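Appendix B, record 7
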Amino acid sequence: MQPFTYLLVASLFFAHNVHGQNITLHYGQIPSTLKTVSALQFHLAQRKGFFTREGIALEVLPIEGGAANMVLALSKGIVDITRTATPYLIQDVLHGSENVAVFGETGTPIYSLIARPEIKDFADLKGKTIGLSLAVDTISISTRKLMGLHGIKENDFRVKELVGTPARSACLKKNECDAVPLGQPEDFLLLQEGYRRLGVSTEAMSNFQFIVAAVRRSWAEQNKDLLLRYARALASSYRYMRAVQNRDEVVRLIVETTGSSDTIARETLKLYFEPERGVFPKAGEIDVKGFEEVLRVMAEVGELKPPIPPAERFIDLQYLKAAGLSNDSSTEQSVRKSFGQHA
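Structure tokens (predicted):
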């Protein structure tokens, strides 16, 4: 397991900072997302020196094997903090781990159901092979719900389980899959090659918390200052990427890190922010209602047994509050509405 060199090498130059010392923070990342738009905040924070300013030497450790292994690496202490899709954290906590979500990363993602050129509409998917993530994943759940809205039932298609947009994209290009859900910029790239977009995931699930940053509760209690530094650095990155005056610079960074064109980078940012669709947080906040929606749909598809546990079992918002970030969104209002009955 090798750290992500781009970030690690840069961290070696952190000679002096406002805190007087640099602390290494080990962050777990899914390899397939290192060069996607979903990792933009890390590249931007590194480029603009937001980690440097907070005295953090961020060491990104690619964790192979999908999102389930992210929480496993966290539990084993291989990483200090990890990104993970919400359902995997939920399952992990229900199995007894001390892991907990402390910050939000991707809110409501936009996955396009991309199909081979000869498939003209949803009806053509009957009898075909759909490349999906694992059943518990909200990518799979939202895609199944999207197809259901258009009359395609579970027994109408075959499933090939593939974790990661790159793997699903490759399946489509090899003609081993007839349709797959893809994020950005892969969906735009394939559209340029003549593939078809049948629909988008937000038609079926318009608001949920897709990706969170998770830590071990005991580690967080012992490293609160470091965690607050990390929160402030990422908040600065999210704010910077959203500012209209920074659009050209952010576009260039997307082109550099993903290999997509200037046009696709601009189309992606326009998709996310014009109008605001809640893909990225404003400053790392967790959408509590969106988290509750994940719990609800997991129960709906049989991945959770009733009664549905409260979202507060999986979330600790004290670090967002301590970092002064709770007013960057509707987090406080959501917490009051969602958690008030448990106070």
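Remarks on this record: The chain has two domains: 5-107+208-342, 112-203. The longest helix spans residues 224-242.
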